[in-house]
Structure formats: C-alpha cells, structure tokens
C-alpha cells in the first residue's frame, strides 16, 4: 500500500508527465498527399477567389449559379456538392465510405475533402438515364 507521499508523487508525475524516453510519443509517418500540382494549384486559386470575394469559411461558399458554371478543373467542397445536388453532407460522407459517388481528393490527415467538377459531371452522366 502506498503512503500519502508516494501517492502525491505519483499524481504529480501524471499531471506533469513523467520525464524520460519511455514517455515520448513515437513519430508517426503519414503517406504523402496524392494530389497533382495542377490540382493543388486549382484548389489554391478557388480558395483565393473565395477569400477575395468574402465567401470563405463555414458559412461561405459559392451560389448554385456559380457552381454550375465552374470549369472542369475547379475543386468544390462536400457542402457545396451537397447543396448542388440537394442532399446532405452526411449522405455524401456515407456514399464515400461505401465507395459510391464521384471521385474525390482528401488530405486524410486534415480530413478535408474536395471534388473536382470534371469528376462530379462524369458521375452525374453515369447516372443519367435516357427517356425511352
């Protein structure tokens, strides 16, 4: 059984973090982001335009009129795609986890997801059924 002094020392060590190599967290190497320089440049351009226009941030984003005329290389957020398709971010997340929906880019570590308009349009074309 521990006496009061030992118990106090143990609590202090937990609060301050014990010194020594045993408590150093191992370095976790993450795989590099698999996004081309062109895709990153397109994303940076879109983000810069949103900041300049005052539409950056969680409540920002482009209007539907702006979304439908974006060039093919433009990247859009999951919330923008949800708004464009009239669905929810949760539905798009579920589809992605099930391997459904358009291709997307992700950082993995940061958790951001972006869809390239070419991929969104291609996926929409796959779903389109011609009337007979």
Please give a handful of descriptors for the protein shown.
3-stranded antiparallel sheet, 47% helix, 132 residues, mainly alpha, 6 helices
Structure characterization notes:
Residues 20-29 have low confidence and may be disordered. 47% of the residues lie in helices and 7% in strands. It has 132 residues and is mainly α. It starts with a helix and ends in a 5-residue tail after the last helix. Strands 1-3-2 form a three-stranded antiparallel β-sheet. Strand 2 and strand 3 form a beta hairpin. The chain has a domain at 37-127. It has helices at residues 4-16, 37-52, 64-68, 78-85, 89-97, 117-127, and strands at residues 75-77, 105-106, 113-116.
TL;DR of this structure?
By secondary structure, the protein is mostly helical. The protein is built from six helices and three strands; from the N terminus they run H-H-H-E-H-H-E-E-H.
Low-confidence segments:
20-29
Give the averaged pLDDT, no decimals: 76
Q: Say how many strands there are.
A: 3
User: Strand order within the widest sheet?
Assistant: 1-3-2
Spatial gap, N to C terminus: 83 Å
Q: Which overall shape is indicated by the principal axes computed on the Cα atoms?
A: elongated
In DSSP terms (H or I, runs of 4 or more residues), the helix count works out at 6
Strand content: 5-15%
Major sheet: size, sense and barrel closure?
Answer: 3 strands, antiparallel
Order of helical and strand elements? HHHEHHEEH
DSSP helix fraction? 40-55%
Rg value:
23 Å
Kindly name the structural category: mainly alpha
